[in-house]
From TrEMBL:
A GO biological process held by the record: monocarboxylic acid metabolic process
Domain of life: Bacteria
Domain Ketoreductase residues, every copy: 11-191
Single Gene Ontology MF annotation: oxidoreductase activity
Protein name, per record: SDR family oxidoreductase
Organism: Nonomuraea longispora
Gene3D superfamilies named among the record's database cross-references: NAD(P)-binding Rossmann-like Domain
Amino acid sequence: MASALPPAEARVALVTGSTAGIGRAIATTLAAAGHDVVLHGRDEERAAKVAADVAAETGGLTDSVHGDVADPGLVSAMMRRIYQRHGRLDSLVINAGVHAAGLLGMVRHDTIGRLFEVNAIGATHTLQASLRLLRRGTSPAVVLVSSIMGRAGGAGQAVYSAAKASIIGLTLAAAKELGPTGIRVNAVAPGYIQTDMLTTLDEHSRTATVAATPLGRLGRPADVARATVFLLSSDAGFITGQVLGVDGGLVL
């Protein structure tokens, strides 16, 4: 883990969808590096508990907000709370998302709606609502979490792929629009990462995925976290509008 930053240099970071999996790993890595981290989840009690757990694990300072990112009113309320408590955002990770698979022609209408409402529209609500806070920040940076499916697609993943591909379009356009204001915007596109989203992957599919991955293993949440934290850091100060694959070479 990186060493903690001096208090005067601590950055305020919001990580949406950070009560489990990749989001929690990102929040934990940021907190361990000395950031003041605001964790987010749909459920208030769970978000607060995970924030307390991350603080205990890292010795860092954490806070929590809650709400469904598909609801623009709740997203605005989250940003008001962050403003009241922290006054700014230096780093934003838009990670909140849902997953569902299904062959075209067999995906329920409500499933299609939910995939886009959270993964695409929710990401847009979050980025829009955060801009005033980011403009108050120091060297502000944003990382959106897309997916290998958003870059390469996959059978049985058409709707999820389309929603995650929209994240890439949002990243590229926002980087061009916000760059002149000093806000960097990048994305990560994780491959097959060992989280709850892989519970539907049977042993045969898991073995085949590992065999097709040049680095010969599934990814870990920490792999995505380290890449994300790099893109948020001053080491990436001249990087914007990029989509960094964290997939072990599965998309080459």
